[in-house]
Design a protein that fits this description.
Chains A, B: It comes from Streptomyces longisporus. Two copies of one chain form a homodimer. Chain A is mostly helical. Chain A has nine helices and no strands. Chain A is elongated, with a radius of gyration of 20 Å. Chain A binds a DNA duplex through α1 and α3.
DNA sequence: GTTTTTGCACTGACCAGTCAGTTCAAATAC
DNA sequence: GTATTTGAACTGACTGGTCAGTGCAAAAAC
């Protein structure tokens, strides 16, 4: 007899509790930062006792590290999927980048708190989860780099572009534009924001209106 | 009788102490975050007594807020200067943006810790210095927006571009690329990084090498 | 003689992590 | 089907330590 509602691996109740803790932690840490967020707050928002946090995670930092891994996993999967879908549909590499921009925006719209938290921690040094963060960052940027490299190999992009730097710049463009969108003009539609970034990507900023 | 090394206004000795405290605080907070940085640490790194911190600043948060204002003041001055210099030399608005990108890179190369700290705090909510941060952010982005608007008015840029969003995206592009440069490939030259970003700005990513 | 800095002891709040005890659902016994 | 056992999951009061901010007398700088 199996348990009534099995998730993939791991006992159901425990998994549900961990999920609640992730959700509570991500918003609190995004708002206040890691150090300013107390374990008591996380427990309270998740609706569990403090002891439960320590039953499920070795420490506050471990909870945070697993949260990071979890979130970036979702993002890279989504980016990769966007790139592959475009390739299957016979699109160019610019189309792939454009699709990835959209996938990035969709992700940020869905998980704004996670994105905030990620940006806030990414360039810090001297932190316990530094190495976790490096690994996880590289996974995400690598997806963009791969598309750029394929584009250079296929002659679609200039072979003079600097792949890692251009990838960083593209990620930064989307990240900052999206966070500003969420923070300062949340009423705008995703399509709107996507259109503006597309234009920038395709160098259609200079030059008069298409009229 | 002028003091030997006058900064604008304020008694010299006091100003020197405050400067030491800014420098100590900025690196520590960039590395560890605001909450994880103690006043004792700041005092120790600055080489002054803890009491001196409180003689010069009302509280830890006030020290931080003034630090923010100070740093962003330097940045906006530098951006504005770059834009104006280009205008005087009869450059286009793209030239102005390019000069501002360079000014941004120079700033980040000179004050990497401040930049880190700024990014880490910018999209947080529920923090005491939230409003300070908003004001100060707007000052910096506004300089870029002004150039974009002037370019649209003069017909150099498409009137379909979204000025605030494009400004955000450009700032993000430079910010993230530069932070990655500093963190992960610090051996590269500023010119190198600038060239890569210039290329992206001018839409010279697509298309074969100029050979 | 006024301003600024020092050094250091002290307070009170806050917080990560612990642990002895409780809950409860499923398994086993009858 | 009812009673009993088991153990994973959870609880929340408690502890030991940390830290922002204070108070103040004496020294140093100007």
């Amino acid at each position: 007899m199996e348990s009534s509602s099995a998730t993939s691996g791991g006992s159901t109740r425990r998994e549900a509790t961990r999920q609640k803790l992730y959700e509570a932690a991500v918003t609190l840490i995004a708002e206040q930062g890691f150090s300013a967020t107390t374990v008591d707050e996380i427990a309270e928002r998740a609706g569990v006792a403090k002891g439960t946090v320590y039953y499920n995670f070795a420490s506050k930092s471990v909870l945070f590290e697993e949260l990071l891994r979890h979130g970036v996993g979702l993002l890279t999967a989504s980016l990769r999927e966007a790139a592959e879908r475009t390739a299957r549909d016979g699109g160019t590499k610019v189309d792939a980048l454009d699709a990835m921009i959209r996938a990035g925006l969709v992700f940020i719209e869905r998980y704004p708190a996670f994105t905030q938290l990620y940006v806030a921690e990414l360039w810090r040094t001297n932190r316990a989860w530094q190495s976790t963060l490096m690994v996880v960052r590289q996974q995400a940027v690598a997806v963009v780099e791969d598309v750029l490299r394929a584009g250079v190999a296929g002659g679609e992009f200039s072979d003079e572009i600097d792949v890692p730097l251009t990838a960083s710049a593209l990620v930064g463009m989307v990240l900052v534009a999206a966070l500003d969108w969420q923070s300062f003009q949340p009423e705008r539609s995703l399509d709107d924001v996507h259109a503006a970034l597309s234009r920038l990507l395709q160098g259609r900023v200079s030059g008069r209106s298409a009229g």
